[in-house]
Each structure stands twice: as C-alpha cells, then as structure tokens.
Amino acid sequence: MKITGEVTTGLGKAAYFLSQEFYSREFKKNLGFVPFPGTLNVIVNEEYLDVINEIKVNCKNLIKPDEGFGAVKYIEAILNDKIKGAIVFPAKTTHEENYLEFISQNKLRDELNLNDGDIVSLEF
User: Fold this and answer.
1) Could you tell me which of 85, 110, 90 has the C-alpha nearest to residue 33?
2) DSSP strand E in the chain: where?
3) Which residue range is the domain that position 30 belongs to?
4) pLDDT tens digits for 43-67?
C-alpha cells in the first residue's frame, strides 16, 4: 500500500527513546540498521486511518521494552520510493492517530531537504 502525507514537526521525544541501547540493538537485529535518533513525523489523511489501525492491531513485529519504557510495533516501509526504513507504532504516544512516525538510519530532513508542509509518500 502507498499513501501520502504531510511532514510536520514532532514533539522531540523520539530522540531520547531511539537512543536507548535496547531499541537500537533490536532495530539493528530486525531491520538491519540503527535508526537515527528521531522520527520523521507525517500527518496522513483520515481516509487511511482504518487501514493503518488494522495494520497496527495485527502487526506482529514488536520490540519489548526495558523496564519503564513502552513496547514498539513496527512495519517496514519505503519513503519517497527510495529510503528504506520503518513506520513505528509506540505503545506510549501522545500523537493523534493520524500521525505516522518513520525511522531510518539517516536524518531525513537534512538528506531529503524536507520542511514542514512537504508531501511525502510511504509504501508498506
């Protein structure tokens, strides 16, 4: 499935969580890369929410947390037809359900010169 959405600024919390060794280790083991400490936040249209929620509920890819942290589900995805990464679904989040968080090994805003309001595609 391929969807589009709008890049937006997140809350800045992902950097701390993605810097935790157990998350980094598990993403490296399961996805083949250590994620950049931060996510690319994408707001998607409500028309995609049913499909996204179904994926989230049925997703078997799970990183179990260390004490005090939340579990994270993830699904491999490709950003703009070229950047391999994953959409993460943290168990503990303050984002609305129309926010998707994409991780990759690179700082995507710099690599792709992305700004708030830019439209990107996600394929999963």
Assistant:
1) 85
2) 2-8, 40-44, 62-63, 72-79, 83-90, 99-103, 119-123
3) 2-123
4) 999 999 899 989 988 999 999 877 7
Q: What is the pTM of this model?
A: 0.91
3-state secondary structure of 106: coil
- Taking alpha carbons only, the member of 118, 69, 80 closest to residue 102 is 80
88 with 48: CB under 8 angstroms? no
> What is the domain-level CATH number for residue 29?
2.40.30.30
Q: How many CB atoms lie within 10 A of CB 105?
A: 17
First-last CA distance in the chain: 5
Q: What is the pLDDT of residues 108-123, one digit of tens each?
A: 999 999 999 999 999 9
Total structural domains within the chain: 1
Phi then psi for 55, rounded to 5 degrees? -60, -45
Q: What is each CA distance from 14 to 45, 81, 82, 99, 105, in whole angstroms?
A: 22, 24, 23, 13, 14
Q: Please, are residues 102 and 87 in contact by the beta-carbon 8 Å criterion?
A: yes
Task: Select, from the ranges 2-11, 49-58, 103-112, the one with the highest average predicted confidence (pLDDT).
Answer: 103-112
